[in-house]
Design brief:
Shape: globular
Helix content: 40-55%
Order of helices and strands: HHHEEHHHEEHEEEHE
Number of domains: 3
CATH class of the largest domain: Mainly Beta
CATH superfamily of the largest domain: Ferrous iron transport protein A (FeoA)
Oligomer: single chain
Radius of gyration: 17 Å
């Protein structure tokens, strides 16, 4: 990983985002373990990513994604979850197999293919959810994940639209019988999968 490719860059950013969402932080040792490489390789990669403005990195400190890095990581995670949904639901592959295959395919999926595949597997952003629809959260940004977890809005949670403000923003959603108000800009960062029959 000393010579960065687009896929290795995306893999690293995706892992940092997932670690931050799950653990609240991402350290070099954790990133190395997830990537299956040695720490010096990760350090070299992080320095390169920092030069590109994708991460904030200092020795012996947790790694943080910049706004630009978060945007890339979020897009990669969206590709991954969309592919995984397709592979498990449509091709009936086991979850672990689908997860591994999605990791390989996500780097090859261009914007047009992602858009059409997303529509095919009934995935949309939370801000586009209609009143009669019920959906399951499939991905959200690390920052939102940490902030909304105490309210039950986590990956796998069932959510529905309950109220829309007169000007269309904010919107209120029901999550496990708890009403949660979100700005459209926040809801746009949350991907959901429509429940069967919707």
């Amino acid at each position: 990983m000393n010579s960065l490719t687009t896929s290795s860059t995306e893999d690293c950013l995706e892992i940092i985002a997932k670690l931050a969402e799950k653990e609240g932080h991402a350290h070099v040792s954790d990133i190395a373990r997830q990537l299956g490489v040695k720490k010096p390789s990760v350090t070299a990669t992080l320095k390169s990513l920092a030069e590109k403005g994708l991460v904030q990195y200092e020795s012996y400190h947790p790694v943080e994604l910049t706004r630009k890095g978060t945007q890339i990581a979020t897009k990669v995670m969206k590709k991954h979850e969309t592919l995984k949904c397709f592979l498990t639901q449509c091709l009936k592959l086991p979850a672990e197999h689908a997860d591994t295959l999605a990791c390989k395919l996500e780097h090859e999926l261009d914007d047009l293919a992602l858009e059409r595949l997303t529509a095919f597997v009934n995935i949309k952003s939370l801000d586009a959810l209609l009143p009669e629809e019920e959906a399951v959260v499939v991905s959200l940004t690390p920052a939102l994940g940490r902030r909304l977890a105490p309210y039950g809005l986590v990956k796998g949670a069932v959510v529905s639209l309950s109220k829309i403000a007169p000007m269309g923003d904010p919107r209120s959603f029901l999550v496990n019988d708890t009403e949660l108000s979100l700005r459209a800009s926040e809801a746009k960062q949350i991907q959901v999968e429509l429940q069967a029959g919707e």
